[in-house]
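2024-03-11 09:14:02 INFO queue: dequeued item Tnf receptor-associated factor 5, len=247
2024-03-11 09:14:02 INFO validating residues
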Amino acid sequence: MAAEENECMSRQDSELMKSWELEAILTNRTLRFVLRLEQQFVCPSCGGIVLNPHQTGCGHIFCARCVRAYLENGGSSKCPLDNIPIKPEEIFQDNCCKRELLNLEIYCTNAPDCTQRVTLCDLQDHLKACQYERIGCSNVGCNDTVLRKNLLDHQRNVCSFRLESCYHCRQSFPASQLLVHQKNSCLDMEIPCPNKCLQMIKRHKLQAHADECLEVETDCIYKNYGCTFRVREHYNLTLKQVKVSFY
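2024-03-11 09:14:37 INFO prediction written
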């Protein structure tokens, strides 16, 4: 009996793979049919829509999930409608019921924003183009999902992970890191001289500028004579130009 059940379930897995793709898409979505849904398309066990209808030997239709649960119950399950034992070898996919269901017209699952009406079998293709479908941003590092109609604007103008070129060095960085780059590490960014000489110096030229900056602090030229003061370089230049007399 166990071998028969495994063989039956394996065959069903292969047959239902395509239908389960639609079932996976509909996870956490609500289907609204244009016309009232007939009872034959509702699983009598779980109350859900029979996206993958399976018929038992007693003639009742259940969704694939409930059928699988019955089969995994070790062959002791009974039909909840007539109490007749459910036999794995008597279960088959009801393609007639499936075709009827897939041809029913529904509202887009993104209603009321999207006003399109499509058949259930065309829903997957519609969602691939629906402007109100939420999809993930493709920028590296971004986990946001946005409406398809807003995606391009999000990727180019809103996303914190969009790449932007540094105005100074022309290298590209995520937008959220650009200001940090310019403030702390951009070598071509002009910053105020740390010695307060009022000049703006590119970061990679700071050391060269420090060697000639007149506001840099240095030892007094009379250090060898006992002066312990540190003075601005321009003061030393003045001392060198002025004759100092000692009395």
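2024-03-11 09:14:37 INFO annotate: The chain has three domains: 2-127, 133-188, 205-241.
2024-03-11 09:14:38 INFO item closed
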